[in-house]
Specification:
Radius of gyration of chain B: 30 Å
Bound molecules: adenosine-5'-triphosphate, magnesium ion
Largest sheet of chain B: 4 strands, antiparallel
Oligomer: heterodimer
Number of strands of chain A: 10
Strand content of chain A: 25-35%
Number of strands of chain B: 6
Number of helices of chain A: 9
Largest interface: A-B, 28 and 21 residues
Helix content of chain B: 55-70%
Chain lengths: 244, 322
């Protein structure tokens, strides 16, 4: 589903060059749940944002469902329809109601009829458990509720892949569970997912593979069972000691 | 013991009233010293006045009969060429003919009073629509320039910066002169078009900066979320960024429109009879200098405060989603 070949992303800001993603190659199969972990600043977010072209990478290739996203004939907007993204800070549209947040892109991008978009949105909002808030504005919702709306908004486009960038990091601890539950259900339904998270429990239970990143490189690519019991890399060992 | 002590408000309000009364008294004494004679009763006629419109005989003939009493009289004129009598109605006090008089065509029979719009009302109207039209065009110019200013294309960005800097770096009065005497002559523009053009270009530059700041105040995450859903940059601008930016720019935009109404008084230098020019013209004939200028100021104040109320109301409506 996703193929990444020799991906490089360099940030240059005020005589400082950061290789945020440094020659990363990997692949994510259809229906696979891959969790990306690593210390702060290791390039996890940047890597994820390269996957849907939010970040223009400097070198390498990202191929989504057979389409090279940096190809000269590729319509990036068409690719992004198929790749849902959930952000750390939800990024809901504050001037739209919850329902409108979920219907807007369906109408504008997928050109669905109002009734169809509405039905789809209500079905998804029920699925994430906040159908009763459909007419509210996002500012009236708790963090956990907002993040679930954001997930519904992404799912409304019927994406083939979902990217999650620390979806629970901005939440109060008691709300983390409700969001993880929704993600776990998605994984069970066979959604292809790439998840950056610090929730080791989620990684252990839900992930099929764990990628450990440090300084822009993938240092370890292993099953959760192997990664959490016997990490090979010394830096992964130190990291695990700190977070577990 | 509450931390916040409530001191009584009335001594300060009393002081405020005292100061205001003092200022009014000062003004009165000042006008006494220059022996100014206030003639406020002269002002209303410049808003609305009654003019006598002459009524003439439609054809040559003789006055056959005059009927009616009270305020108006109807005069029956039998035409010299024969036929049914023609009727003319005039005000009783202005009647100039008697029964049996012979009248030629277009002879005065009398007058009828008519309400006319005075120069102050006309000037006010010119000021309002001049500001409205140039504000509207300025808004469009400002929106386009603001977007160009943020465009990744260096040509568009350069043009936008040049325009904004040129307009903001020169006085409006000079711009109006250039627009009227140079561009107006070259393109053969009407003075009204030149006035509206100069005001719109002037407002556009400031509105562009307001628009730019408004767009930049919307967090990056908003457009990233929209783009990640597959929206194009135009769709993102239209559905996500501009609606949110619009809400934020309403207060500075209101200020800009209010400035525009006041700045529009400068077009009187190219002989557009706006409120200010009307005021000046009236003074040359009425000598009620102080009254007219006070009235003109009051009228500007009226228009600007109506506008700010309107925008305040709009702002409240948009605050729904907070
Ligand atoms: N827009 C940017 N401009 C300059 N440098 C950037 C930018 N975004 C990220 N970086 C740098 O790239 C490196 C990787 O950042 P990234 O946000 O991908 O890390 P991360 O693994 O997601 O960290 P965190 O766990 O804190 O979210 C960091 O050194 C960061 O300073
Ligand atoms: Mg990050």
């Amino acid at each position: 589903m996703i193929e990444v070949k020799h991906l490089v992303k360099i940030f240059t800001s005020r005589n400082q060059v950061v290789r945020a993603v440094d020659d990363v190659s990997t692949a994510i199969a259809k229906g696979e749940v891959v969790v990306v972990i690593g210390p702060s600043g290791s390039g996890k977010s940047t890597f994820l944002r390269c996957l849907n072209g939010l970040e223009e990478f400097d070198d390498g290739q990202v191929i989504i469902d057979g389409i090279d996203i940096a190809g000269s004939k590729t319509n990036l907007n068409a690719v992004r329809r198929e790749v849902g993204m959930v952000f750390q800070h939800f990024n809901l549209f504050p001037h739209k109601t919850v329902l409108e947040n979920v219907t807007l892109a369906q109408r504008v991008v997928r050109k669905r009829k109002a009734a169809e978009a509405h039905d789809k949105a209500m079905a998804l909002l029920s699925k994430v458990g906040i159908a009763e808030k459909a007419q509210q504005y996002p500012s009236r919702l708790s963090g956990g509720q907002q993040q679930r709306v954001a997930i519904a908004r992404a799912l409304a486009m019927d994406p083939k892949v979902m990217l999650f960038d620390e979806p629970t990091s901005a939440l109060d601890p008691e709300m983390v569970g409700e969001v993880l539950d929704v993600m776990q259900q998605l994984a069970r339904e066979g959604m292809t997912m790439a998840v950056v998270t610090h929730e080791m429990g989620f990684a252990r239970e839900v992930a099929h593979r764990v990628l450990f990143m440090d300084a822009g490189r993938i240092l370890e690519d292993a099953s959760p069972a192997q990664f959490f019991t016997a990490p090979r890399e010394p830096r992964a060992q130190t990291f695990l000691k700190q977070v577990l | 013991m509450p931390l916040k002590k409530r001191s009584p408000q009335w001594p300060w309000q009393g002081l405020l009233v005292l100061i205001l009364v003092g200022m009014a008294a000062g003004l009165w004494f000042a006008t006494q010293r220059v022996h100014y004679e206030w003639r406020w009763e002269r002002v209303p006629q410049y808003f609305l006045y009654q003019a006598d419109e002459p009524q003439v005989a439609p054809a040559a003939g003789t006055v056959q009969a005059i009927h009616g009493d009270g305020a108006t009289r109807t005069v029956d004129i039998a035409p010299a060429t024969g036929g049914a009598p023609l009727q003319v109605t005039v005000a009783s006090s202005s009647l100039q003919v008697k029964v049996g008089d012979t009248v030629a065509a277009d002879d005065d029979i009398g007058t009828t009073p008519h309400w006319r719009i005075g120069p102050l009302t006309q000037g006010l109207w010119i000021t309002i629509w001049l500001s409205f039209v140039s504000g509207f065009i300025g808004l469009i110019i400002g929106l386009i320039t603001g977007l160009c200013r943020l465009s990744p294309n260096p040509t568009l960005r350069g043009l936008a910066v040049l325009y904004i800097e040129l307009i903001r770096g020169t006085p409006l009065l000079v711009q109006i002169f250039i627009f009227y005497f140079f561009i107006g002559t070259v393109l053969n523009l009407d003075r009204i078009v030149a006035g509206v053009g100069a005001l719109a270009l002037f407002a556009g530059a400031y509105i562009a900066e307001i628009v730019r700041a408004g767009i930049q105040s919307i967090p990056r995450g908003q457009s990233e979320a929209a783009r990640s859903l597959g929206m194009s940059s135009t769709e993102t601008m239209l559905h996500i960024v501009l609606p949110q930016a619009f809400k934020r720019v309403l207060p500075p935009l209101a200020g800009q429109f209010i400035s525009l109404i006041k700045d529009s008084s400068l077009v009187s230098v190219i002989a557009i009879t706006d409120l200010t020019k009307s005021g000046r013209e009236i003074i040359t004939s009425s000598f009620a200098t102080f009254e007219i200028w006070f009235t003109v100021a009051l009228l500007y104040l009226l228009v600007t405060s109506v506008l700010s109320q309107l925008l305040f109301w709009l702002e409240r409506r948009f605050a729904r989603s907070d």
